[in-house]
């Protein structure tokens, strides 16, 4: 199924945060879309989220997409929805594989929150504490997860939406310089960087 006329709203510029994986999936699939960056403190908190509710959208959080006259919210539900629309990036006939992708994404979001807390709440001290106490824990966890199946992606040879989440978080903040220390993470990075439709997106990492 093709997708056209999609608009994605999010509060982090470029490919950061939980909107980034959605953008990478759309880019990889060759889907044209409009990206609406909404400054978080200046516009989203004070105005935009209230406007969405007034307009009948019950979810006052971003990311949000508009497609075919409808609005859909929340990062992982959006990316699952789009994957099913596209007929790829999500297992369609294997519930165990689908659960594995979902679990990997859930853990990736935990990793993202840990980095966000260290960087934006803890400052320089927070980042140092993260590197000393959390960084290896998360890399070791995902190096193990990506070793379950044979191949560079979480499911092995076939890319799924969780791979975009993991690539973005392991390329964020202090994580990027440690990727090569973990073989399965290095293999994922190499595979993602080789995908032709992601060349523009990868300039942001």
UniProtKB/TrEMBL annotation:
<dbReference type="InterPro" id="IPR036282">
    <property type="entry name" value="Glutathione-S-Trfase_C_sf"/>
</dbReference>
<dbReference type="InterPro" id="IPR050213">
    <property type="entry name" value="GST_superfamily"/>
</dbReference>
<dbReference type="InterPro" id="IPR010987">
    <property type="entry name" value="Glutathione-S-Trfase_C-like"/>
</dbReference>
<feature type="domain" description="GST N-terminal">
    <location>
        <begin position="6"/>
        <end position="90"/>
    </location>
</feature>
<dbReference type="GO" id="GO:0006749">
    <property type="term" value="P:glutathione metabolic process"/>
</dbReference>
<dbReference type="InterPro" id="IPR004046">
    <property type="entry name" value="GST_C"/>
</dbReference>
<dbReference type="Pfam" id="PF14497">
    <property type="entry name" value="GST_C_3"/>
</dbReference>
<dbReference type="InterPro" id="IPR040079">
    <property type="entry name" value="Glutathione_S-Trfase"/>
</dbReference>
<protein>
    <submittedName>
        <fullName>Class gamma glutathione s-transferase</fullName>
    </submittedName>
</protein>
<feature type="domain" description="GST C-terminal">
    <location>
        <begin position="94"/>
        <end position="205"/>
    </location>
</feature>
<dbReference type="InterPro" id="IPR036249">
    <property type="entry name" value="Thioredoxin-like_sf"/>
</dbReference>
<dbReference type="GO" id="GO:0004364">
    <property type="term" value="F:glutathione transferase activity"/>
</dbReference>
<dbReference type="InterPro" id="IPR004045">
    <property type="entry name" value="Glutathione_S-Trfase_N"/>
</dbReference>
